[in-house]
Design brief:
Shape: globular
Structural class: alpha/beta
Strand order of the largest sheet: 9-10-13-16-17-18-19-20
Strand content: 15-25%
Mean pLDDT: 92
Low-confidence stretches: 3-39
Helix content: 25-40%
Length: 570
């Protein structure tokens, strides 16, 4: 065959091969077959080599956010955990495997170490990875990270995620209790068990738990120190203080009041590890301090406290705490949850760790429990000056972002929508911005926060609006007792008409001297426990007799009907 003919045949062969490949492409068949189709053809070694090589080559930084954990939950059997990871494609690495690691809450999930940390599971790389392993109790407070081995180092391929359904293994599987109304009150401990409390018909009671009060050895021989074992260490709780809370929560449960406990991290000389490293400044003038979830000792101590309290008050012999508020007005980070920072992203991430610890502890013990973060009325008015306080709206955005990033869960929002200034009582005479950009929250624009939380990105795991409660709000009687009573009644009806707000817990049962000195006489009773005009209004507001007082309220606020009054607040 001459040279020209050989060249012609060679060209024809090339064209024929190209045509075949083109036809296969038009038929939608990939040139590289899937692992299932090629496994028989290429053999085990070829399949492993192909998975090792992958379809994309990514840098360490690209890998870190390449995948997405779509679920991390305990199975219905309560014995296994499943984690689903989705990858856009299969990245190349040192071998065919993808690994799963666990980290403590306080640990940096980028710090794998020199192979000292062992994976808890592994599987062949896939676009859809489904890990499963045996559940251990301590994993409720651990985060899980998928990683690839690249150039001899483990590299994360997504954000970390926590288990987000601890209620599956709850000791008490009851639902959240139903209440007759939204009426609640910050209680006066001196009036527990007396008609001055019981005749008020309180449905929601709230009480503070400062950590320094309950931790450490007891000082009363009648109530020995309580020893609590947690992760191989023994923690001490003050037997006398705990006995007081035992009696309180048992009493409130017996009286069918839904109890909310507020966890407050006050200064403790004996236990400085509970204070965040950026918060250890006693001279700050703050009332309470940020929880320490950044260091091992403080974080594990906080886990022990959360586990102890949630277990003890989950509906057994010591009563039921149905709701927990973690810290107070966290957007006020210079006063009520002190941290020396203006970095809202870091601040929110550190707080979210503590919120999740208490959430998982509470839901593990009582499936119906609700766990809240707390904000005040400074919704959007700091004008970018984060060194003074954070906007409540910005805090919700930041906490929600980090919570969803690490596995969405059903945290709620406790709000304190006081009029501005706090001494103002006739809040209905002001004009308020009712959009989501409003500077402040008040009883007249509560739709600001409820509309904000109705947005899709803020919904809970079931696609519902998160639980919202007004856990602190009061009106001073310094401008007149009848004006105080009308302000309370109007606010109660506004909240009662809002389907997204579950309770209105009024501040407070009895005037507090430190507040009275500031012109804030919020109580139903005066300091000497004599009742004010608001007593009758509060007592009857959620009964049939309550409607008899509506005209009194309408005359003061200047409305023709309750319907007209409610329209003003929409």
């Amino acid at each position: 065959m001459d040279k020209k003919k050989k060249i012609t045949l060679f060209i024809c062969g090339i064209l024929l091969l190209a045509g075949i490949l083109l036809i296969r492409g038009c038929q939608g068949k990939p040139l590289a077959a899937s692992a299932e189709n090629l496994s028989a053809e290429e053999g085990e070694e070829g399949r492993i080599n192909r998975l090792t090589q992958g379809n994309v080559t990514l840098s360490q930084w690209e890998l870190a956010s390449y995948g997405e954990i779509t679920s991390c939950s305990i199975k219905e059997d309560g014995k296994t955990v499943g984690l689903s990871l989705v990858l856009p494609d299969i990245p190349g690495s040192d071998n065919e495997l993808i690994y799963l690691f666990e980290f403590e809450t306080y640990e940096d999930t980028d710090a794998f170490g020199d192979f000292e940390r062992k994976p808890i599971a592994s599987m062949e790389k896939s676009a859809n990875c489904e890990f499963q392993w045996n559940f251990k109790e301590e994993q409720l407070f651990r985060q899980f990270v998928p990683a690839l081995l690249v150039h001899g180092e483990y590299i994360p391929v997504s954000d970390s995620s926590y288990i987000n359904n601890p209620e599956v293994i709850a000791r008490n599987t009851d639902d959240y209790p139903e209440s007759r109304s939204k009426k609640g009150l910050l209680l006066d401990p001196e009036l527990l068990g007396t008609p001055k409390l019981e005749e008020l018909g309180v449905q929601h009671a709230i009480y503070n738990i400062p950590l320094s009060l309950i931790i450490g050895e007891t000082t009363d021989d009648k109530y020995p120190t309580i020893l609590y074992e947690y992760k191989g260490k023994t923690y001490q709780f003050n037997g006398s203080a705990i006995a007081g809370y035992d009696n309180l929560f048992f009493y409130l449960t017996a009286k069918e009041m839904l109890t909310t406990a507020i966890i407050l991290n006050d200064w403790s000389e004996e236990y400085p590890e509970l204070i965040h490293p950026l918060s250890r400044n006693k001279k700050s003038g703050a009332y309470y301090y940020a929880f320490n979830c950044a260091e091992e000792e403080g974080c594990l101590h906080l886990e022990a406290i959360a586990s102890f309290l949630a277990e003890r008050y989950s509906g057994g012999e010591y009563g039921l705490v149905s709701s927990w508020v973690i810290a107070n007005e966290i957007n006020q980070h210079k006063l009520w949850n002190f941290m020396d920072t203006s970095d809202i992203t870091m601040y929110a991430a550190e707080f979210e760790k503590a919120l999740r610890i208490f959430y998982n502890a509470a839901k593990r013990n009582y499936a119906g429990a609700k766990v809240y973060l707390s904000i005040d009325h400074d919704w959007n008015d700091n004008e970018g000056k984060n060194d003074k306080f954070f906007n409540a709206r910005d805090i919700l955005e930041a906490v929600n972002s980090i919570a969803c990033q690490k596995g969405n869960y059903d945290w709620g929002v406790a709000i304190h929508p006081y009029p501005a200034p706090l001494t103002r009582v006739n809040y209905w005479n002001q004009t308020y911005d009712k959009t989501m950009d409003a500077p402040v929250l008040t009883p007249m624009n509560l739709s600001t926060v409820t509309d904000f939380l109705k947005q899709e990105e803020y919904l809970d795991r079931s696609g519902n609006v998160r639980s919202i409660s007004v856990t602190e709000l009061g009106f001073t009687s310094n401008s007149g007792e009848k004006l105080q009573a009308a302000a309370f009644a109007y606010c109660y009806y506004i909240i009662d008409a809002n389907p997204y707000i579950e309770a209105f817990i009024m501040n407070r049962q009895t005037d507090a001297m430190e507040e009275v000195k500031q012109g804030l006489s919020f109580g139903i009773y005066k300091i000497d426990h004599t009742p004010k005009y608001i007593y009758k209004i509060f007592k009857e507001i959620d009964t049939e007799q309550g409607m008899d007082n509506v005209d009194f309220m309408l005359n003061i606020i200047g409305a023709e009907s309750l319907e007209e009054a409610l329209l003003r607040a929409q």
